[in-house]
Write a structure and sequence with these properties.
The protein has 2 helices and 2 strands.
Length: 79
Amino acid sequence: MPGGPAESGTNLANLTGFPDLVVPAGFTTEDLPVAISFIGPAFSEARLLGLGYSFEQATKARRLPVHTPLRAGDAIALP
């Protein structure tokens, strides 16, 4: 039923207890972030982390934040 608690993948994972990994997947034409969710069966966390990492490396969809300044003494290492 539309609007129900299991409409999104994240809600489905929360309700079932199955692992869910959300990673950046790009940006809309209005420059809003989009994410993709990897949901797996019980105890598949290692596989999901591998899939998420591979997806991020293949797409390079993640951007460094532009509106969150670094704290004094912090640095971000660029790949």
